[in-house]
Amino acid sequence: MARQLDEQIAGRFPVGQRLRVLDVGMGQGTQALRLARLGHQVTGVEQDATMIAAARAALAAEPEGIRERVRLVQGDGRDTGVHFLPGSFDVVLCHGVLMYVEEPDPLVAGLARMLAPGGLLSLLVRNGDALAMRPGLSGDWAGALAAFDTTAYRNRLGLDVRADRLSALTATLAGIAAPLHAWYGVRVFTDTAADDAELPQDLQTLLAVEERAGRTDPYRRVAALLHLCGVRG
């Protein structure tokens, strides 16, 4: 997904431009810190106290120049309008968040308002059109059968959450003046791997395969996750 995001940034902004990035629901700050290391000014928003503590600890271990480029805000991603002015950012990330939000459209609309004209909105969501894949490939036939007609699922943390369909999010992005520009699949072949599985020796080959599949039909359509990139008009 990082490679996909970098591809979209490189295609939209001049080389070397220091971008204003908002990462909503940043978790432990993986993407926020990665982008700060690349020279961008990053603001991370996270509601969970444990996650933002981990992000602060990771940031504290970075060199001073990188620390100066990162601002961390503890808060709800649905309240971006409280913290920031419309059009304040060139790139807005919202990765792995929408599945926890019962009504995602207001959140996505609020994120789009944070973008300057021509800005990039990056969403990572659970693929509601492929929920039967994981139970099916694991031999859980009853679970696979039930997954065909729903966007609800139980994640690896044991939480009951929701997925998004590509068609619905495409319509949402068009309706908020940030139409879909590109989309990718994420975790096409590796979704059934155990969380504690050892990394293979040919990791770079694995990543190359996933990257190729994530941009190629029909593979990307059955990926566990969808990475959607909208552009603010």
TrEMBL record:
UniProt cross-references to CDD domains, sorted A to Z: AdoMet_MTases
Quick check: keyword Transferase in the entry? Answer: yes
Q: Which UniProt keywords apply?
A: Methyltransferase, S-adenosyl-L-methionine, Transferase
Methyltransferase type domain ranges (all copies): 22-122
Which terms does the UniProt entry file under GO BP? Answer: methylation
Annotated InterPro entries:
Methyltransf_11, SAM-dependent_MTases_sf
UniProt KW Hydrolase keyword: no
Q: Name the residues that span the membrane.
A: none
A Pfam match? Methyltransf_11
Q: Which GO terms describe its molecular function?
A: methyltransferase activity
Listed name of the protein: Methyltransferase
Q: Which organism is it from?
A: Streptomyces incarnatus
